[in-house]
Amino acid sequence: MLKKTSIILSAIFLVGLLTSFTTEPKQKSVRTIIIDAGHGKMAGGGYNGAKGSYSYEDQICLAISKKLVAMMNRELPDIRVIETRPTENIIGLHERADIANQYKGDLFISIHVNAMPEIRHKRLTGYETETYYVKKGKKKVKRTKKIPQYHYYTTVDQAKGTQTYIWGAHKADDKEVAIRENAPMFSEENYQQKYGSIDPNSPEFVALSLLKTKQFQTKSITLADFIEEEFAKAGRISQGAYQRQKGIWVLQATAMPSVLVETGFITNKSEEDYLNSESGQNETARAIINAVKKYIAWLDKKGNKPQAVTNTPSTNSSKADYSFLDAIENREKTIRTK
């Protein structure tokens, strides 16, 4: 009887924890946005990131980020905006994630610039005759053969357009750990009085963090889609939203919905010119903030409410029911991997 009661109380605790952890009544859907300008100038000089014909990725990332921050402060005054790299100097990836988690961001947007290596070519220029011998001694016979000669050269890859990434599915475990380690409730001074003794490694808390990971994935995909839609509206070539198969620390180590925006290809001269221009940077920032506004409206329309709990345990339950994990909204989205 004691064991049965303990299980029921544990399940009730989990439901209550879900409500308190997921949202609070009348709470704004987005209170803090983290803007991350990719890369940065190295301490000993030089740049970290892609290089174009005359500019560097980190310079463009910072310029676009500054314009985006200014727009957000002006048009979304109730939202706190935090920059992980407010200057030209580089900031470590772990420090960026730490900043985002420290300020309890509700959204993480990392600004980057894409690049492609040069395309290698070879062109047949003719043949050289090579002499060789077969057999040995008196039976040795002279032979010749033609060896093709090639001219090797490279051309610039003309790839263009935007891409927006979320973390890869294979990094979901890392995201879940980040959520567990940076749960908002643990930042409260009186969290023990409010929630009791909570073990972040307990089955209840692990189940809750798995739910949050799925929710954050849905939100991240939604924002990524909105960003690419806005780029397309602005006349840019949108290559779409992707899961990033190569792990990017800031995406998987931040306990919030997160996206990385590749704003264009610095290795394409026309795109490099666009990304360095005031109009191009403003247009890029405008597309992102428009997407953020759509994202906030989408959250508000949903009500930003905790997911419904199905099959709530009753006094007749023999074990805690975790079927609420299946109640998470399942948007029929197809997101590519790259």
What would you note in describing this structure?
The chain is of the alpha/beta class and 338 residues long. The chain is built from 9 helices and 11 strands. It has helices at 2-22, 57-75, 93-102, 172-181, 191-195, 203-233, 249-252, 269-276, 278-302; strands at residues 32-37, 40-41, 47-48, 80-83, 107-114, 119-134, 141-155, 162-167, 238-244, 258-265, 336-337. A 7-stranded mixed sheet has the order 4-1-5-10-8-9-11. It has a two-stranded antiparallel sheet with strand order 2-3. A hairpin with a 5-residue loop joins strand 2 and strand 3 (47-48). Helix 4 packs across helix 6 (203-233) and helix 8 packs across helix 9. The longest helix has 31 residues, at 203-233. The model is unreliable at 2-13, 20-25 and 305-334 (pLDDT under 50).
Shape assignment: elongated
N-to-C CA distance: 53 Å
Strand residue content: 15-25%
The chain-level structural class is alpha/beta
How would a textbook summarize the main sheet?
7 strands, mixed
Mean pLDDT over all positions: 80
**Strand order across the largest sheet:** 4-1-5-10-8-9-11
Question: How is the topology of this model organized?
Answer:
Elements: H1 2-22, E1 32-37, E2 40-41, E3 47-48, H2 57-75, E4 80-83, H3 93-102, E5 107-114, E6 119-134, E7 141-155, E8 162-167, H4 172-181, H5 191-195, H6 203-233, E9 238-244, H7 249-252, E10 258-265, H8 269-276, H9 278-302, E11 336-337
Parallel strand pairs: 1-4, 1-5, 5-10, 8-9, 9-11
Antiparallel strand pairs: 2-3, 6-7, 8-10
Helix pairs in contact: 1-6, 2-9, 4-6, 6-9, 8-9
